[in-house]
């Protein structure tokens, strides 16, 4: 028996036992129906693929189906879903009837699974073909967008893996995630986030050194590692002893000690470096100074024809077929065979699925980097010519564009980039489409005007780039491209087209809170261009957008005229999308006047017409505002249902992070918080991928409330800190972050800090000149903190702090009243949420003087009964404290009922902060809570750090007795009393006896009424 455990490739498993154990444990969990995922990271060459190969061998031996796919480095021309297409390809040809039926039952998989033999040249299956930009009708492409949504495809992939897993465990391996395109990252995120009881293990590997701070994968990793089903395995370089053992095991015969020491030193613990160094050592005397030199010097030992074909493989940047190499390398069949045989035998190239690729990516990079400029251009041109001659196929446009760009054939690259962008859009990958358009814009001026695609010009590309930036969650870039489009306008541009450009800028600016003034200016220029023209689709769209901006700026009569005129123009010219947008504006204006049912009818009509017109962004806007109508009126179930419909539609249309795709998600998450339906998945709804900081912050602002409620202090502090940078960009972010900071400090008893955070948030809003209704909530939270701060100060006899806290509370109350009076509710009147928070602010203010009003608090509880389950539980807890302070058997009984109700909610939804606060009040009042162990509600060491003797001493101190009097009462010496008092001060972290008594009484550590 081999004494050294080995990987499937025969390479010894030195120093990898722990990593292999963790991967095996993950697979064993999947076998038992505990689906999970592993993220395997490490530097290039550290052994990730070898470890995964061994996992595949072991899993296969245990009866599992192992599916493996790899991302490719195609130089910014990312192919959507490529690794999944490769991994799932065996399912299409499986002879297992269960697998075949599972595939047939999911037609959406047809976009990934091959229907025939792979195309030569490493291309994708022919069934994935799409037409080029010059052959396809753009309007037809737009109409088919809704049929290519991500959600159906994602569900199909998860469904087939789960169904196959019912028969045998499935291991899905996705390698080289650092090269993955955005669509692949989205699908991976979807799968991993939905791992439950499937017999499925998902493993993803990536190069840690390639995932830099702004790399799009980093955000996804940050999201995934928080999931309970995800574990991480970091493959580190070998330590010196392990590297020596590894190298010794690699060599068949004895190795010179000096050579061994030098290889260990030079390899720096990287197995690939060590292996390549050893290979070089045994074939030449000199050891190269660096890795690239070493790799190239090793290749120099190979025949000329072999090196020639290796250069051709390096340019392909993907697995390449024998036929493709024959075309590109210029070698005859015999010479090519011999050259490839040499490369395979020397372990430079490996064969996978009939195609050739370098054994290690670093080797390919070294060879590619060593190419002379001329030969690099010639080989890229040869590959480009090959793809140009092929029948259209999925991914061909992107590959052809890449090779044309690298060969400096910009004339050929330009239409290919447009076709690739078109294909990416149809596949639901707007970020990929944006990158293709950006490359097209970069080379636009380098292409002679007479050879540019007839159906496109720079103005169109800028407009589409703005659109794709907006739909992929990058509103700032959307504005930048829209601005560039306005700068590209010339006097020769017809007025309607110029108006469309200015309207696009106005619309893009509305996604940024700081863009309103510029948006007003932009729509004004658009209107000037079409104001005196006859009805047209462009004029209808301008009028509808103008109505929206006038509505926002409170010019209601002008907005109403613009919206009605837009409807007339749209109906006269058949612009159904523009009509739908105008109907939304009419609905919003109706609701602002209090005509709720009329408003909802308009919004439903707008949603129907936008869907029929294929105006996806307008459709989403209608769905959002319809849900918001129910939201504003406190009809929570209907609002949640409406937001869910918007989320589903955004996913179907691949508009997840467009302006209103974001809004429906953010508000849906906020309502889940309010209604007590808290997500179990950490970071639910977070984009975590390829979106701007403002978009990510918008979602984090909704999520941070749940994090605070759950008592996850470190996560909450990090989120609050990160959100601070976005306060200026979005008032809603400032409101959410300010409220979260106030609540977090409040729950942890730092009431002074909570008051300070509330003041800061309100000060920020006042600087902006804002009297947003959200300010009522901030003021109410600040008032609660001021009440607690004043109460604690009274116990300490600290009159100065009492006065300060009361003054702060009065200022908070004044701010809340000002917001309620001068705020501008969208519906025209203060809704249930605003009224409830105003009611709480008034109730808290009544406690500033030291005693609250139990009867008034009953009204607050009722006010939050519109569906705000969590907030109502909080005010029940607040009311219980006021009732207990008032005293009396009846009040105590009422308090107990409120605490029981609050505890049930807190315990059910996982609101740890509220749950602990309720239990603390119950413990002090010696009340019971159903389902809670009595020991939880009695003094414990964790809650009560004092010993029995220390507590007895403190009780005497609380009665105002000196150390001598305490000693006489307890029959101990004065010196012993002094020691006990010192220990009490230390444990309670206070500086004097009065503070100790106040803190102890506040925390319920004293059992007798204190009289100081």
Automatic annotation (TrEMBL):
<dbReference type="Pfam" id="PF00196">
    <property type="entry name" value="GerE"/>
</dbReference>
<dbReference type="InterPro" id="IPR016032">
    <property type="entry name" value="Sig_transdc_resp-reg_C-effctor"/>
</dbReference>
<dbReference type="InterPro" id="IPR041664">
    <property type="entry name" value="AAA_16"/>
</dbReference>
<dbReference type="InterPro" id="IPR011990">
    <property type="entry name" value="TPR-like_helical_dom_sf"/>
</dbReference>
<dbReference type="InterPro" id="IPR036388">
    <property type="entry name" value="WH-like_DNA-bd_sf"/>
</dbReference>
<keyword id="KW-0175">Coiled coil</keyword>
<dbReference type="Pfam" id="PF13191">
    <property type="entry name" value="AAA_16"/>
</dbReference>
<feature type="domain" description="HTH luxR-type">
    <location>
        <begin position="939"/>
        <end position="1004"/>
    </location>
</feature>
<dbReference type="InterPro" id="IPR027417">
    <property type="entry name" value="P-loop_NTPase"/>
</dbReference>
<dbReference type="InterPro" id="IPR000792">
    <property type="entry name" value="Tscrpt_reg_LuxR_C"/>
</dbReference>
<feature type="coiled-coil region">
    <location>
        <begin position="589"/>
        <end position="616"/>
    </location>
</feature>
<dbReference type="InterPro" id="IPR019734">
    <property type="entry name" value="TPR_rpt"/>
</dbReference>
<keyword id="KW-0547">Nucleotide-binding</keyword>
<keyword id="KW-0067">ATP-binding</keyword>
<protein>
    <submittedName>
        <fullName>Helix-turn-helix transcriptional regulator</fullName>
    </submittedName>
</protein>
